[in-house]
From TrEMBL, chains A, B:
InterPro entries recorded: 2-isopropylmalate_synth_dimer, AIPM/Hcit_synth_CS, Aldolase_TIM, Citramal_synthase, LeuA/HCS_post-cat, LeuA_allosteric_dom_sf, PYR_CT
Residues covered by the Pyruvate carboxyltransferase domain: 4-268
Pathway named in the protein's UniProt entry: Amino-acid biosynthesis; L-isoleucine biosynthesis; 2-oxobutanoate from pyruvate: step 1/3
Pfam families cross-referenced by the UniProt entry: HCS_D2, HMGL-like, LeuA_dimer
Organism annotation: Luteolibacter ambystomatis
Enzyme class: transferase
Name of this protein: Citramalate synthase
Keyword entries, A-Z: Acyltransferase, Amino-acid biosynthesis, Branched-chain amino acid biosynthesis, Isoleucine biosynthesis, Transferase
GO MF annotations in UniProt: (R)-citramalate synthase activity; 2-isopropylmalate synthase activity
EC number: 2.3.3.21
SUPFAM superfamilies the UniProt entry points to: 2-isopropylmalate synthase LeuA, allosteric (dimerisation) domain, Aldolase
Recorded superkingdom: Bacteria
Family in the record: Belongs to the alpha-IPM synthase/homocitrate synthase family.
Length: 521, 521
């Protein structure tokens, strides 16, 4: 049996964080990645809280998870309501997940002031709901909300609620530091008490980062006997976020000798993937997986580092998929590119001149601020160009954008013109748009349509902008990510430039270009 | 005596972090703010490592610190060199700071492999250097580099190096987790051993965040008997950063009952100040001081929060200068604005209709993405407008920008035109620029110069761009910060818009407008 089980709540508690939104499709894709990485439990959402989560669990029935168990999240039954008649509990069963996680109140103050019921009824709500879910064959995880605050207020009351869950047959009792205000030594001590008082049921830990101690508190809980850790990828979550699994996993595996995932070297890819899907910038200073986590700068002599790496690095960077001196190659390494080429059906032999040229080009572009994690379309074009299977669809002569702002009360006007050649035939178009970029997209399509009527089928569905480096005013780069679709498939393309208009142009052109390359075959 | 002393190294170790650069002037301004906040020690730089730090300490002699002691950082003497002849040690004394901090090697492996000397000579280097600095009247802090790694490798060797520093007369022995790989329980245990073995000298702690445990390790050290904590504001520093003082200070003061600063409610302002001066985005999820640290979202009923705030917040947000439901007012509160108006010599009476109107306007603008911490110029204009002491310098009719990109090999052309009236006299100008914004700035000055020849004296010295919210593609805002100078003084102005050109225009106009308002008096 695993020494510690990993319970991911990126899809539920993670999405409570500001700026971390996921579509239903995003959630399915992330669930597959979490499963492939070796996460044990994936909490998908709260079917009782919104119809979108009900839909998610419907769609998730077609997911083929190899290892992970999917969990639906919800609460105990309402006060004074038989559990069989509780609509929210029914939705939990209808999600048809192997695991159901329910939270209940541990803090007497909350029972009387928020629930407005008695401690006895509160315990019955916990016991009944767990027993009901067990009767329906579910593995039941019990989340003891506000456990540490409740324990400090009244230890016996808090312990009695856990006892109720254990009596109901709970498979794991998760102690939640809901407000994130508990210190590590308190967490460890209280875990030890719980293990001693309720020895028959495994204990888990759910922490928040309000004191910048979420990871430390999870580690303290493991030292106190906890065998399940709840958290999120990159630490997303309500307020300051949840326990960052991206940090806790390598600590368990590399520092504490507890094997929790089969291939820790995939950690960096997973971390980038979640950020790219949710359109969040990757945190450069992130422990283990950050771009600067193993950067040697400052007064450090690179020779000394090379001579004696272990004296300047607390772990081998490759063990988490990262690398030393990341500035040369910001992404996750060369093998990654070869694997992607293979997935696209574009054969690239490791060590061949073409493969070397592709890798060189990718390195150069990453150094300029490109990132291909969410721009597979641009990566595919880059490989096709090196393979010699690429035909240029048009020659640009020039494009022009204009923005005119009038005195208050008069709408600004955005206009773009495009002048290009297709097989020596000139085309010159003009269009207006909601913004400069929109105008440019419309003008370009107008110019290409007579030659490539098939582009009528495709459209731009997503547009994301990010400043890559805001520190040097004159050299700040803008990164534009665009998603183009033909109604069946969609592909991401990227442009980077000091000028936002130019960056957008590059990404728009790639989006159309890739479609034309594929159509041509 | 204070239970724990705070040692800030934002100006030295902080600037080892990627993307965290400070000019000499920035460093002086931050030192004043750290002092005002109640930091005990401010490490200003390493005079032996670069001439800029020598200059900083020269300039710092005119700093009037009320509480903090300034520290110069450096290393022990070189092997086989008498300390009196060591150039780097001489520079440390020439910095003329009351405190000197020197680091030495604790890890035997590093002594033999990097220094290439003997353990005996290493200890002599430590002892001699400390004694030499003490002889010259300095308070000496000894940073034991790689202490925890060295201790785990050979405890006796590591302890002997501390003993050598104590023999030299060191005032504090700081245990450094240089690689950031140590776990909290190890830190506490090892601190306890050091306190027992070398009881005469206080112990400090210097941690890094490579395992997301820097704050936890500092807290563990305090539990192990440490009485000095080294760290940086907002956790900046090499690789993943240093111990975040912005988190550790409220933990000490609010959770552990150790009073370390006189007015913790100024914490949020200090945190924003350091970010704005270094042009870093403030981390929304930051514990205690983040914009979302006390945000209630998710399934949480706002009524329940209001009813029983302490059951949903681990501390009172105002105790660190933050506030609940921060989305209404993202900045640090109303009093802050009144204090700033007072500093500008613009009387604003608390509760007066004008003050209310200003506060309302500030709130609205902050909600749109404005931030006035580094844009005092725009704030001053806003107050002047409400006070009725403002005269509009010109009426805009329209402006226009154009960007034309040719096929590869031909430079793009940026052009701007401005059409405006001053006292009903029209002016219509055109200019080219390096970029769209530069062209706009030049064209505007050209239009105003005939009416306001005094603007010849001012120029734009800094331009910073940031995407405020990159999540919703259509609503992403661009924030532009501009610094304008007349050669004596400089002032910051801000513009926010969905369009980068419009945001830049707003900031440029404010920069010139404020100058004209002041000249008019």
């Amino acid at each position: 049996m695993k020494p510690v089980f990993l319970y991911d709540t990126t899809l539920r508690d993670g999405t409570q964080g500001e700026g971390f939104q996921l579509s239903g499709l995003d959630k399915l894709r992330i669930a597959e990645r979490l499963d492939a990485f070796g996460i044990d439990y994936i909490e998908g959402g709260w079917p009782g809280s919104n119809p979108k989560d009900v839909e998610f669990f419907q769609a998730a029935k077609s997911l083929k998870l190899k290892h992970a168990k999917l969990a639906a999240f919800g609460s105990t039954r309402r006060a004074d309501t038989p559990v069989e008649q509780d609509a929210q509990v029914r939705l939990l069963l209808e999600a048809e997940t192997p695991v159901v996680t329910i939270f209940g109140k541990s803090w007497e103050l909350q029972v009387t002031e928020v629930l407005r019921t008695t401690p006895e009824e509160n315990r019955a709500m916990i016991r009944d709901t767990v027993a009901h879910l067990k009767k329906h064959g579910r593995e039941v995880v019990y989340d003891a909300e506000h456990f540490f605050d409740g324990y400090k207020d009244s230890a016996e009351h808090a312990l009695a609620t856990l006892q109720a869950a254990a009596e109901g047959g709970a498979d794991c009792l998760v102690l939640c530091d809901t407000n994130g205000g508990t210190l590590p030594h308190e967490v460890q001590e209280i875990c030890e008490v719980v293990r001693a008082r309720i020895p028959g049921t495994p204990v888990g830990i759910h922490t928040h980062n309000d004191c910048e101690l979420a990871v430390a508190n999870a580690v303290a809980a493991v030292k106190g006997g906890a065998t399940q850790i709840q958290g999120t990828i990159n630490g997303y979550g309500e307020r300051t976020g949840n326990c960052n699994l991206t940090s806790v996993i390598p600590i368990l595996q590399l520092k504490m000798g507890l094997t929790v995932v089969p291939a820790l070297e995939n950690l960096l890819d997973l971390s980038y993937y979640v950020d790219d899907v949710s359109n969040n910038p990757h945190f450069a200073r992130a422990p283990f997986v950050g771009r600067t986590a193993f950067a040697h700068k400052g007064g450090m002599h690179v020779n000394a580092v090379k001579k004696l790496a272990r004296s300047y690095e607390h772990i081998v960077p490759q063990s988490v998929g990262n690398s030393q001196n990341i500035l040369v190659s910001e992404l996750s390494g060369q093998d990654n590119i070869l694997i992607k080429a293979d997935q696209l059906g574009l054969g690239l032999e490791k060590g061949s001149p073409v493969a070397k040229a592709v890798l060189q080009k990718v390195k150069e572009l990453e150094h300029e601020g490109y990132s291909f994690e969410a721009a597979g379309g641009s990566l595919e074009l880059l490989i096709r160009r090196e393979l010699g299977t690429y035909t240029k669809p048009f020659d640009l002569k020039e494009y022009h954008t204009s923005f005119r702002k009038y005195r208050d009360g008069h709408e600004p006007v955005c206009e773009a013109t495009v002048k290009l050649y297709v097989d020596n035939t000139p085309e010159y178009t003009v269009a207006e748009g909601h913004g400069v970029v929109n105008a440019l997209d419309v003008a370009l399509r107008k110019a290409l349509l007579p030659f490539y009527p098939e582009i009528e089928a495709i459209s731009l569905v997503d547009y994301k902008v990010r400043i890559v480096d805001g520190h040097d005013a004159t050299a700040a780069k803008t990164r534009v990510l665009i998603e183009t679709t033909d109604g069946h498939q969609s592909w991401g393309t990227i442009g980077v430039s000091e000028n936002i208009i130019e960056a957008s142009w590059i990404a728009i052109v790639d989006g159309i270009d890739l479609f034309l390359q594929k159509k041509r075959k």
